[in-house]
Each structure stands twice: as structure tokens, then as C-alpha cells.
Amino acid sequence: MKRSKKFLSLILFVFITIVSVGCGNTVQKSETNDSNSTKEQAKPVTLTVSAAASLKDSMNEIKQLYTKQYPNVTINYNFGGSGTLQKQIEQGAPADLFISAATKQMDALKKENLLVNDTIKNLLKNDVVLVVPKDSSNVKTFNDLTGTDVKKLALGEPKSVPAGQYAQEIFTSMKLTDKVQSKVVYAKDVKEVLTWVETGNADAGIVYKTDALVSNKVKIVAAAREDSHKPVVYPAAVVKATKNSNEAKNFLKYLSGNDAKKIFEKYGFKFGV
């Protein structure tokens, strides 16, 4: 009888020990899981991206994909003429990432030491085209801009809009500057040029191919020769004043990846800069 009691006591001791160890491991695992969970919960971040107006459609689509993958990141875009965006950054406007439609504006900010230099990269290429309203039939070439059918020719403001600068170079190359200058009306960015042509407020306009492709109210009648203007290159860089350097670099890396590339190509942009 005594032996039975001792045996039962021993079994009870072993059982209690096993249960205690098990509970300890459970608590330890729970604490570890909680720790890992905390690490995985990235802090909320808002990125301000100043980007050329011609990127609006493609960048908005990319934003949807990116924020699904990184739900802690909110992306606010500031679209406009590249020269205007450059001035804003120079004056201290908040921006984490800058994407220009020409190297001129990026080079200026680099010279002023306002960019993280090792992040500067040429991201995309584009083409310059002549567009007219969908139902127009009399303008088919750049030379036709000198005719009486074109009373208003919409261009981006050359001082702040790269597309306007490219247009000037094209006219100079084709010796058309003096013949079309009196017809020119200047817009604040390339999207406004497109709108004026769409609504018939301008008889023709010079925009990027990517802008023309998203509109069903205009048609492309001519593409500028590549040797008639500087290459249309879109450089990008992280702004030095950013408080979200890692997140800005991560988004820039994403813009160079395959998912973003598919979207850019869908809108007519080219790679291989």
C-alpha cells in the first residue's frame, strides 16, 4: 500500500513537471511571436513624390499596386511642370522623391546639393509627338503648322515645361520658329496642352506620346525625329531633405522593377536609358 502511494506520488510529480515545462514553452513562444509581430508592423509613412505631369496616369496605377504590397505607406503625388517642381524643392517644399521629364532640372538640383546623389538614375524615355483634335484632317505634319488651319498652337511653357523646351528645339531644327511663333499659346504643363487640344481651344499641340495614347479625343499626326531635339529622359532621385530616406529609396527601387515596368510600358514609356 505504501509502495502504491509512493508510485502515485511519483507519477503526479512527473505530470506536474511536464505540464509546467509545457506552459513555460507556450509562454515563451507567445512572447517571441508577439516580438516578431511588433517588428513586422512597420510604422506608417507618407511619401510625397514630385513628378512630371506626363507621369500622372502611370504613377497613379503604380501607386495602387505599391500600397497593397506596403500598406503602411501612403503616397501623395505632386504633379506639375518639371521646372516648377524644381523651384518648389529649391524653396523648401516637402518632397521625398523627384522625377523630372528632363535632365536639366535634375542637374540643377544636384548642383545645389539638394539630392541624394547616389540615388540619381535615368528611369524612362519618351517620344515627342504632334497632336490635333480627333476630327481634324488638315494638319498631318509639323510643316502644316504654318498653314491657315492652325490659329492656336499649344505648347508647354519652355521655362518650366520640358515638353515646351523640346518643341522649341524641334522648331529650330526644322526652321519653323519664326513661322509658328505668333500662333503659340503656352500651358503650365503638358497635360494642359493636351486638354486644350481635346476641347478644341487649340488646333494642335506638342505633347509626349504617352499623353496622346491615353486620350480618345486627339490623334497623333506626326512624331518628331529623335535628332531634332535632346533625348526625352526621365531621371529620378531621392530628395536630400526627406525624413523618409529608406522608404523613398524603396519606392524608387520599385519603380525600376518588373511590376512598375509593365505599367510604364502599357502607357508608352520606354526603358533602356
TrEMBL record:
Residues 1-23 form the signal peptide. GO terms for biological process: molybdate ion transport. It comes from the Bacteria. Pfam families: SBP_bac_11. GO terms for molecular function: metal ion binding; molybdate ion binding; tungstate binding. Molybdate binds at S54, S82, A163, V190, Y208. Keywords: Metal-binding, Molybdenum, Signal. Belongs to the bacterial solute-binding protein ModA family. This is Molybdenum ABC transporter, periplasmic molybdenum-binding protein ModA (TC 3.A.1.8.1). It comes from Clostridium tyrobutyricum DIVETGP.
